Inverse folding.
């Protein structure tokens, strides 16, 4: 499995390691590897060959203050409401709160998703196993004023020109 580099990476971990263990000058190493002397100097100073993450060391909101974010986190942890419900409840208190800033704030504190509740989702069942050459057709029944129509549910026929079987209503 190969190493994954970001789009503007000029060196691999092997090259970085070779730079760190070399006693040659910055100029010689930069010519050998086809990179700038500044890049060679940067890798000589570092103790590891791993790329550092870009962006702020401690992410913070540019829209919300620390106190407002603390209020949001406390409210969402206490109520366990969905995102939109939290937004509508908190907007009177924090008028400049947007859905995206609320979601980003909750992501920073690892509470952006509600916990799964048992019984929340319907139980999935497998289809019945039929023998080979068995053809299954699902049919829906619709009743209008004077007749009953049966519609195939395989998704192929158009609803505008159905192949419906009609019979008079009982």
């Amino acid at each position: 499995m190969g190493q994954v580099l970001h789009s503007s990476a000029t060196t691999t971990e092997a090259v970085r390691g070779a730079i760190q263990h070399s006693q040659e000058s910055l100029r010689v190493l930069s010519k050998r590897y086809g990179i700038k002397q500044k890049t060679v100097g940067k890798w000589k100073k570092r103790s590891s060959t791993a790329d550092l993450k870009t962006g702020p060391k401690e992410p913070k909101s540019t829209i919300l203050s620390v106190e407002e974010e603390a209020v949001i986190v406390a409210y969402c942890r206490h109520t366990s409401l969905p995102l939109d419900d939290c937004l509508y409840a908190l907007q009177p208190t924090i008028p400049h709160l947007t859905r995206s800033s609320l979601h980003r704030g909750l992501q920073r504190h690892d509470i952006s998703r509600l916990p799964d509740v048992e019984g929340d989702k319907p139980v999935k069942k497998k289809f019945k196993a039929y023998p080979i050459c068995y053809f299954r057709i699902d049919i829906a029944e619709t009743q209008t004023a004077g007749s009953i129509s049966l519609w195939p549910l395989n998704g192929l026929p158009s609803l505008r020109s159905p192949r419906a079987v009609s019979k008079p209503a009982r």
About this structure: The mean pLDDT is 79. The two ends are 69 Å apart (CA to CA).
